[in-house]
Design a protein that fits this description.
The chain is of the alpha/beta class. It is built from 6 helices and 9 strands, in the order αββαβαβαβαββαββ. Helix 2 packs parallel to helix 3 and helix 4 crosses helix 5.
Length: 203
């Protein structure tokens, strides 16, 4: 990549932030997406909301946690450190993290998982303890993977605009080539909350 940058070749990077003045970054609004997901839980009466974080060192992990925290702070909900558990963006880590939450004396009523794979692991752990989703614990994911519509219950999640990001990137790259421009910028494409069956309203 840096060889391309040194040569002055137009470069558009998708879904990964590269802090170079000549690089165009096309990114999804992950912080806003997480914020909207947690606000949806709050609007449905949830106050004891946990997060299963993504892999340490990933920007997506930071952005999604920031959105989670922002929603809680704006709604004046106390941040409970016991409700913040680490994951690795895979099913097994979601399963393990959920089991940690289920051992708490006061279990969360809802869990925001930083991706859909971890949400699947979390749902398995919940059912193994004799509980139900969403009757006992609501679950929200992130990414809107293909399987989200087909698991039971169908997963409420945040859709990353992969197609829109790719299309925008192609348009900008063509424009850079045609106009011989090589100035960088960061462009954020909106995410969308896909509401399905894994969240219940509580009083």
């Amino acid at each position: 990549m840096y060889y391309v940058i040194r040569k002055g070749i137009p470069l558009v990077v998708l879904n990964r932030e590269v802090n170079e003045k000549s690089v165009v970054n096309i990114l999804s609004e992950e912080k806003t997406g997480a914020y909207n997901a947690v606000k949806y839980l709050i609007e449905n009466g949830h106050r004891d909301i946990a997060i299963i974080e993504g892999k340490e060192g990933f920007k997506s992990t930071v952005d999604r946690k920031d959105g989670f925290l922002k929603a809680l702070i704006e709604s004046k909900i106390l941040i409970n450190n016991d409700y913040i558990v680490s994951g690795e963006y895979d099913i097994e880590s979601g399963y393990s993290a959920m089991n940690k939450l289920l051992k708490l004396k006061k279990k969360p009523t809802a869990v925001f998982c930083s991706n859909d794979d971890m949400a699947v692991g979390a749902i398995k752990a919940i059912y193994e303890k004799g509980l139900k989703v969403p009757d006992d614990i609501s679950v929200v994911g992130f990414d809107d993977s293909e399987f989200c519509r087909y698991i039971i219950p169908a997963l409420t999640t945040v859709r990353k605009p992969i197609k829109d990001v790719s299309q925008k990137g192609a348009e900008i790259l063509m424009n850079m080539i045609e106009n011989d421009e090589n100035s960088g910028e960061k462009i954020y494409v909106p995410t969308k909350l896909k509401i399905r069956d894994s969240v219940i309203a509580i009083k």
